[in-house]
Predict the structure.
Amino acid sequence: EVQLVESGGGLVQPGGSLRLSCAASGFSFSDYSMSWIRQAPGKGLEWVSTLTNRGYSTYYPDSVKGRFSMSRDNSKNTLYLQMSSLRPEDTAIYYCAKGRDYGDYWGPGTLVTVSS
Amino acid sequence: DIQMTQSPSSLSASVGDRVTITCRASQSIDRSLNWYHHKPGKAPKLLIYAASTLQSGVPSRFIGSGFGTDFKLTITSVQPEDFATYYCQQSYGTPPTFGQGTKVDIK
């Protein structure tokens, strides 16, 4: 059974940093692209970034470019999202998903709150 | 970015009803359209990809159709577990973009 579990969310002050993790199991993690998607309170879903199985980034929207960075450790079956210079508008539930063009499996998400 | 517009934004239905949600793209996206089901606090779940292909394990009461700019998700007989928010998402252009969601609740 495919499982994705995000962790690392929490309350952080504006300008701060946070690293999210996504632990994957139930599939050959190193063979698949992985993505992060977020949902701000009361808003829709926004695709944040995608990383290929070989570690190539395919996309960052302008809203996070230069501040967010994805990485992966295929030996640990874990995906990461390093977030820096956080802004209140980055407040959201962050989901990791298996896949590049669409997410065929998602985790339940981790909440990031950026507030002073 | 390709804009995705869903309608309606919400609807009420009774168990057993037939429900249809539409999704329109701001430009042609061929058949690169995916549908998700999402309940608060849970992981979003892929229902249909490539406009009409049912994801493994998804009940056959979910039917996707469409091509180009206009797409539909039909639930032929709504079940209690189907009350949720539904999102369409295009995977034709970068970035992938979502519709604003359609909330299906109990009448």
